[in-house]
Amino acid sequence: MTARLLDRVGKGIRGAPRDALVAVIAPPELQGAASGLRQSLDTVSAFAGLLIAVGLMLLWSNNFQAVFWVAVIPAAMAVALLAFGVKEPPPKPGTIRQNPIRRASLARLPVAYWQVVGIGAVFTLARFSEAYRSYARKKAASFWR
């Protein structure tokens, strides 16, 4: 349950900044194409990563630890690329940087927004039970062995 929660939080933290980064870097006339390319590469890499992981599991006789260490390599390369390859554009003259999420900003959001957020949270909790059921089933199976 904790792993699932951390996975969803991690996805939420990385998704919006990644999309904003693509939007800022791409020229206005190519933003749609850049976003589509990012999504395509995400899908292809997920599929290729799965195939590579399965191949390594077969090659290394189900050595999970070795496969996870191999998975660290592209993750480290991605972090290095962000740290050394992406430069933040300079702010426009006269611009004051401030955190856009403040209590006053949240209070100005309409009731309809909070209703949609509430409905989304309920649906998310409904899907969360799938992961918990799978976890509970595995725990019960290991208990009876």
Please state the average pLDDT score: 83
Give the proportion of residues in helices. over 70%
Overall outline:
extended
Note the beta-strand portion. Answer: under 5%
List how many beta strands DSSP finds. Answer: 0
Structural Rg: 21 Å
Q: N-to-C SSE series? A: HHHHH
Structural notes for this entry:
With 145 residues, the protein is mostly helical. 78% of the residues lie in helices and 0% in strands. The chain is built from five helices and no strands.
What's a concise summary of this model?
This protein is mostly helical and 145 residues long.
Features:
single chain; 145 residues; mainly alpha; 2 domains; 5 helices
Chain-wise SSE layout:
Layout: H1 2-25, H2 31-59, H3 64-85, H4 103-107, H5 111-143
